[in-house]
Amino acid sequence: MDDRPRFGGRLVAALFGLTALLMAGVGGFPADTALHVPVALGFFLGVTVVLGADGIRRRDTTAGRLLLAAPVLHVGAWYGWLAVASLGDGIALPELVGALLLAAWVLALSPVAPLKTVDSRA
């Protein structure tokens, strides 16, 4: 029996669990504290890794191919924002892109997404 698909799913689940803990840490450490930035960076890096890992794992499916584009979009949002030298205090466009990508994964693209039909779960 080939355990690779099960291992891949468990790896993505573990990465998502760590990313979720980091997301909680972003809320636990206000923006003016020393730990906010490292925890936030870890969270957004985690989002990128989770989406990429699940995309690689399920690259033969439509959802997997969409997920392979998600890290590129997320990193591109950060690059674009930094290239413009930020748009000012309080503007969090790359964070918005990352949060929307994570929400799309949780709700519609993950293997257990509640918005999927039973037949499309893969």
Automatic annotation (TrEMBL):
Q: Where are the transmembrane segments?
A: 7-29, 35-54, 66-84, 96-115
Q: Which Pfam families match?
A: DUF998 (PF06197)
UniProt key word Transmembrane: yes
| Alphabetic keyword roster | Membrane, Transmembrane, Transmembrane helix
Keyword Transmembrane helix listed: yes
Q: Which residues form a coiled coil?
A: none
What is the name listed in the Swiss-Prot or TrEMBL entry for this protein? DUF998 domain-containing protein
Give the organism the record lists: Halobaculum halobium
